[in-house]
Design brief:
Helix content is about 45%, strand content about 20%. It is of the alpha/beta class.
């Protein structure tokens, strides 16, 4: 008993010392996707503001692969010392479920992460090229019904946010589409613009410039209400399809991170995410800040993960061609 008590005392002292000295070197913020997607659009300006709060460089590291699962798993397995953080998306909740559906051992579990803060939360929008044949959602659905499995769409990766949102819509509409996965949201947008695919589910931020520039057309959104950013675009629910999906961004640390250290990181992220400078940066990419601190974010995350689990189980195993 004395040895156990001594060990606990030493552990608490070391955790307190770690928090007191933190940070004493640069911090890595892992973006588990290639450049150009939502996680990077939010992560880079957030990292700039975090540097002011923490007085250390905050380095964005793109670690793509498997729709984001590779980068997420790398943070789950990282030391809990506060020097490796994750700029995660809602897809963090997808992969443990999708792996089990496909008979695989998950690369990580949700309990491997400590939520720090929710930063943004945007619904996805269905976009096509302006010079393509689809002027309305009805055009798209009619064509898909007439050509099952022929109309293709890009995504950020198998079972990533853009894949799952599209499959939720396809299931609601009773259509079959052909999925072409890429290594992130940026390449998925490029594929649509380059004519390799016909459609894409995208967060508003990566698509709004192309929509306003006349290169993309938005057909519908996965939101519960019309977007202030695109008020002329109907929701799927308005058009009779039970399809709702949000891409949110949040900061996570490895679950092994001590409470004192998590508190310090939370304070720094709160200062950064609620700063006028960060809000201004998000305004420029038409992305409202939806900040929630860890306790509220934990509840939000649990509700969203439960909803996604139901959706994934309804979709079931998806055979990739």
């Amino acid at each position: 008993m004395q040895r156990a008590s001594l060990f606990l005392h030493i552990l608490l002292l070391s955790s307190a010392c770690l928090a007191q000295d933190y940070p004493s070197k640069p911090i890595t913020l892992v973006v588990p996707f290639p450049p150009g997607g939502v996680a990077e659009i939010v992560g880079r300006p957030l990292a700039m503001e975090l540097e002011k709060s923490l007085r250390q460089p905050v380095l964005i590291i793109n670690r793509p692969g498997a729709g984001g699962a590779v980068g997420m798993a790398s943070v789950a397995k990282a030391p809990g010392d506060g020097y490796t953080l994750l700029m995660g998306l809602s897809s963090i909740s997808i992969f443990p479920v999708s792996d089990r559906i496909n008979g695989k051992t998950p690369a990580y579990e949700l309990k491997d992460f400590a939520p720090i803060a929710l930063i943004t939360a945007d619904p996805t929008v269905l976009v096509v090229r302006t010079d393509g044949p689809y002027k309305t959602l009805k055009d798209f659905v009619d064509a898909a019904k007439a050509n099952p499995g022929k109309i293709n769409y890009s995504s950020s990766g198998v079972y990533g946010t853009l894949h799952v949102s599209m499959e939720i819509f396809a299931n609601a509409a009773g259509i079959k589409l052909f999925h072409v996965p890429y290594q992130g949201g940026g390449p998925a947008v490029t594929a649509l613009l380059g004519g390799q695919v016909e459609a894409l589910a995208s967060g508003p931020a990566p698509a709004i410039g192309q929509i306003r520039g006349g290169k993309m057309r938005a057909l519908a959104s996965w939101s519960s209400e019309r977007l202030a950013l695109l008020p002329e675009i109907p929701t799927f629910k308005e058009l009779g399809y039970d399809a709702e999906f949000y891409i949110w961004t949040g900061v996570f640390a490895p679950a092994a991170t001590p409470a004192e250290l998590l508190s310090k990181i939370r304070n720094a992220v709160r200062q950064a995410a609620t700063s006028a400078e960060f809000k201004s940066a998000m305004d420029k990419v038409q992305t409202p800040v939806s900040y929630l601190d860890a306790p509220e974010f934990q509840k939000y995350w649990e509700r969203d993960a439960a909803r996604l689990k139901v959706a994934l189980e309804k979709i079931g195993k998806i055979e990739e061609k």
